[in-house]
């Protein structure tokens, strides 16, 4: 292996990247205004500010062992369509999107950041490092950032694609803040779904992931009984007026949905132009036009035909193995794929509880106009 | 390097250090079992470029002049040299590391990365890394972190090359650097094992008198006290306990002996050695040679500047070489001082443990000394 080869390859990659950055920059500036503002979209209340250019033009970031890749993170509360959108992105000829990398979560032992933060030896090493650049924690974050960039770049290299994304659902409340601190140059797509549908979907998901179904979740006897009753006859169950939620479950989901989604939206200011929020329901109603806007945001080819192909590749029919939307398979990850299904499940009491816990966020996101539902 | 040779690289239980192999065991087996530095794998771990890296390492056993050499190199306008980063030596851990003592020196970065159970599990599970070899990912991570700290500091300094003074802590050192940084240059400073043993003992006494952690027994402390009272006395009673001298001689033989074998085998012409004694005797020539080895400016005035800014007089703040201050890190700065300390019995023990290496390194012609 000659030096020449290595240097040339590196320089070519750098030039291509600089060129793409330029193009992406133009495309993104040109079409920003066309996105209809959404209620609660933090992006709509701010004047555009320059994107922090960590990857900056021609000069590689000192210390990085290679170019920074164009990367994004797809975030959202679980059961909000993150897997769907991941597959949709991944079918794009320029985008590699996988999940879940579990990069973020300083307090989560099974996340990269948390694993490194938990190493007492590493902490001590950083504290005594004569090469230390700043305070201890930023150094740790730099190690995380380098690792993420390296792993994503290596995977990307094996494809013909040029943009790479990780599906990073809310396993940690401060995910947006962490991304802003660790990967300030990354883009973030936040998919939001009506919390009531999230609640219904979560119950089905729990049912399917119970230990007696080969999953890992320990389900209480009460919940198992509920599942069996439902599956005996979903229609009669619905007509009986019985709730599918056991105990405090609906309140817990409403609370966690409200907290995690609001937190991500509040922290979005840290990302500025690099944050984009999309509603599951809009993606369902107007898939092609929504996807075009998303692709524009990611700096990918957003041609209508390309977008349509992405939508088709990740259609409910494809993902569910042949069922059409609304045709339920309670045991499938792609169960029903519709919006507003909560109405078939929520009892009066469920509504009351949900309003109390998360009614305001429903209004902010445009799902309701008031608390009168 | 032969497989037989490679097998010998397993860090043995070196007396001064405790080699901790727990989670690192699998990693060690793998490292030791490999004949060559890892090449590109299916996992996509990059082959570090064979040259073109601005990174080099200055290594040497403790009390062999590593800090002196570091200062010489750092005073060159194109070279940034600091220490100790403690990047390498995954199998090394301070035996006396007190977890409650935040000021105690850390284990190496490599130790931290290879012994983090959470990190290993994450690598094995994450969608971005699970289809690769976890050990190779760890090597890549090690490279990333090392490169990051060194080259970021380099960029800020405005210099061209960056080197870490990395003490030779265990027998695996050269192989680790070779696996992580096959393109780096390595300078190995070697000192007569007898002198470094004397120096090491003085360091122990100094630390004990200043209230720092030390490993000396009460017998050794008493010997130090006796020496302080009667500086002319040592050769009659000796300053070493038999076990201490034997350990030190063995340690020198094992670590230095291994490094002089592995260095050329792994790094070829990117490895060089310098003897403390030669650096003392003809500093201009040796420093010029080392600067040429690094590929930086070797103009006479530059060499002179490097030599003079790290002279014993400067470092010791005004003492001349040979003028001893046993309370100073830069104590005496001479070669051959061991003769003032070694008893007949000390000589016999050292010959037995490391006599051959003294000959191989040119310090003696035979065992008849």
Description:
The complex is a heterodimer of chains A (373) and B (369). Chain A starts with a helix and ends in a 9-residue tail after the last helix. Residues 1-65 of chain A have low confidence and may be disordered. The relative contact order of chain A is 0.15. Chain A is 49% helix and 7% strand. With 373 residues, chain A is of the alpha/beta class. With 369 residues, chain B is an alpha/beta fold. Chain B has 16 helices and seven strands. Chain B is globular, with a radius of gyration of 21 Å. Classes of the chains: A alpha/beta (373), B alpha/beta (369). The interface between A and B is large, with 49 and 53 residues.
Question: Features of this protein?
Answer:
heterodimer, A: 373 residues, 5-stranded parallel beta sheet, 15 helices, disordered N terminus, B: 369 residues, two-stranded antiparallel ribbon
Q: Please state the structural category of chain A.
A: alpha/beta
- Give the distance, in angstroms, between the N- and C-terminal Cα atoms of chain B: 34 Å
| Radius of gyration of chain B, taken over Cα atoms and rounded to an integer in Å | 21 Å
Summed up, the helix count of chain B is 16
Q: How would you classify the helix and strand content of chain B by structural class?
A: alpha/beta
Q: Kindly report the average pLDDT value of chain B.
A: 83
Biggest chain-to-chain interface with counts: A-B, 49 and 53 residues
Determine the oligomeric state from the structure.
heterodimer
Tally of alpha and pi helices of chain A: 15
Q: Tell me roughly what share of residues is in helical segments of chain B.
A: 40-55%
Terminal Cα separation of chain A, in Å? 69 Å
How would you sum up the global shape of chain B? globular
Radius of gyration of chain A: 22 Å
Helical content class of chain A: 40-55%
The helix/strand series of chain A, from N terminus to C terminus, equals: HEHEHHHEHEHHHHEHHHHH
Residue-averaged pLDDT of chain A: 83
Cross-sheet strand order for the largest sheet of chain A: 2-3-1-4-5
Uncertain parts of chain B = 1-50
Count the E strands of chain A: 5
User: How is the main sheet of chain B built?
Assistant: 5 strands, parallel
